[in-house]
Amino acid sequence: MSTVDPPGSNETLRHRAGRYIAQPTGYRAFYPAPLPPQPLPRLEGELQILLSHADRALGRLDGSIQTLPNPDLFVFMYVRKEAVLSSQIEGTQSSLQDLLAAEAHILAPDRPRDVDEVVNYVAAMNYGLHRLQELPVSVRLIREIHQRLLQGVRGIRLTPGELRVSQNWIGPGGCTLREATYVPPPPHEVPLALGALETFLHADSTLPQLIQIGLAHAQFETIHPFLDGNGRVGRLLITFLLCQREILVKPVLYLSHFFKQHRVEYYERLQAVRDNGDWEGWLAFFLRGVTSVSREATETARRVLALREDHRARVTIGLGRAAGNGHKVLEHLYRRPIVSVSDVQELTGTTYTAANNLVSRLVELSVLVETTGYRRNRLFRYQAYIEMFGGPSDTAEGAAT
């Protein structure tokens, strides 16, 4: 694990992210200093190289998405992949397959109970992306997103959309405030800290955009303004800032993949900012994540394009006069990769028998895979496409509890 040396004396650095202050009841809470850090992060040496790599990787990703025939279909799966991974970091067990099944209204008996939380994440992201057209990233937008994220799920009792009015803390299950790994600022400090973060996001700055976004994510997690859902909202914040600042035209950077793979280091880097003022170490980690995930997403875009061309050729050659309806189904699968014969019948406007025959031929062409094993009410997956986003192996192994 490489490190980046920060500037200045140890004492100056230790407090540039904020200070721990003893509270009347005996525990210590962290009071974050406003952004940007003082002294500013030193963007030279390794950190400068990492920033260059991240900028280049993001540029290539953005360009590759714009070459796709219909980028929004590609985005559909990326939003869901991010929803699954970000939720798994917080302890959900639902996979991408579970989410797609839930959205297809498949009520399987073994469906994870927490899949609704992932469905909410998708809704919150889509709402936020639409809202950005009229409202910039702000405390107001953050609260609206939080309300949609927790609506009707396990966090409903924890005041969705409302800033906390009691003290929260982070640590092992069952630990007390005094035993906590980290205690965020007291509730009366939260509006002030969030207001300062919003000011930073809207202010003119000489810091590179990716550095600003990395600082903002860490600061939000440090403030921890809600009783639940802070991690998920904080990771959504990254996506919203990338899109609002037009660094990406589409939300196709799912950093939760990198954060989940390096979950322990993710939390350690955030804590090192609070304890030691190590903004450089966090930013280096963040930029490595941006580069890694951007490169992976670019490769996935290339593979999706190749898959689409291959399957379009199979449909054209293999279906003859039914190729027109076959192409309709194929394009639909990029938006809804699980279908029934009735779905295909409605999509193509044919008889049930004709739709059933079309589905059977798509199975023969290895475009669709029958997954239920039933004689009636069968369901078919666009498995090759789902697997490009980690479908079958997309489990919650290693998720936080």
UniProtKB/TrEMBL annotation:
Physiological role: Adenylyltransferase that mediates the addition of adenosine 5'-monophosphate (AMP) to specific residues of target proteins.
Catalysed reaction equations from the record: L-tyrosyl-[protein] + ATP = O-(5'-adenylyl)-L-tyrosyl-[protein] + diphosphate; L-threonyl-[protein] + ATP = 3-O-(5'-adenylyl)-L-threonyl-[protein] + diphosphate
UniProt-annotated catalytic positions: 224
The protein, known as: Protein adenylyltransferase
Binding site residues for ATP: 90, 224, 228-235, 266-267
Pfam family, one: Fic_N
Keyword field contains Cell membrane: no
Domain of life, source organism: Bacteria
Quaternary assembly: Homodimer.
Domain Fido: 137-288
Species in which this protein is naturally found: Rhodanobacter denitrificans
The protein's Enzyme Commission number: 2.7.7.108
InterPro entries xref list: Fic/DOC_N, Fido, Fido-like_dom_sf, Fido_containing, SoFic-like
Entry's Gene Ontology molecular function annotations: AMPylase activity; ATP binding; magnesium ion binding; protein homodimerization activity
Record has Nucleotidyltransferase as a keyword: yes
Assigned keywords, A-Z: ATP-binding, Nucleotide-binding, Nucleotidyltransferase, Transferase
